[in-house]
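Dear colleagues,

As part of the handover before I leave the project, I'm documenting each prediction I ran so the next person doesn't have to rerun anything. This entry is a single chain, and its sequence is reproduced below.
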Amino acid sequence: QVQLVESGGGLVQPGGSLRLSCAASGIIFSTYAMGWYRQAPGKQREFIAHITIGSSTNYADSVKGRFTISRDNAKNTLWLQMNSLKPEDTAVYYCNARNYDNYWGQGTQVTVSS
């Protein structure tokens, strides 16, 4: 059974930082491209960051320079380091694993508010 379990969300003040984790099981993690997406209330899910099997990365313009995606294949874990957080970053953040299959986690809430 494939599981992607996100953690690390919470309430943070503007300008603060959070580090999200996604623990994967039931897949050969090293063979999957991984990504982070988010969905704010009333909005569609949007792409945030992507990391390839070879650890090449790309980011949405809205988070470039503030967020960093990384992976540890030995630990089957994906991370998203989020710095300089803004209120508009408030959303549920989802982990995604993709090769010939496509899997999603259940999401973790990030709220940026003073």
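The chain has a mean pLDDT of 97. The CA atoms of residues 27 and 111 lie 30 Å apart.

All the best with the project,
I.
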